[in-house]
Design brief:
Layout (H helix, E strand, L loop, with lengths): L9 H22 L5 H23 L14 H24 L11 H10 L5
Length: 123
Amino acid sequence: MADPKKRIPMNHVIGFLLSLAMTLLAAWAVVSSNLPVRWVIISILILALLQAGVQLFMFMHITEKGSGGGHVPWNMMFHGFALAAIIVAGSLFTMSFGFHGGHDGDGGHQQQEQQQEEHGGSH
């Protein structure tokens, strides 16, 4: 548990600064670096994993002894990772193959124009 005499939680400050630095480094890699796309993606993935580790250890108190003798809720972590993987996989699937829903990419304007012509003009 946190020391009540301490005013500034240094672990949180260090974790925040590390997260901020990794986020800015990832943004720089995308915007300003001359790295090939493959290396940009690899570096972003590595930074994301490192940032997840920082979040777990600095903010989520994964190593804190006051939570049941250092008990780590591995079951909840596994289900969180599984849910995140499902969401990411579904997002990638949708972005890769898209959902056209019968539209020709014009937002349904062509179908609307056809219906107006069939009904004799404008509504």
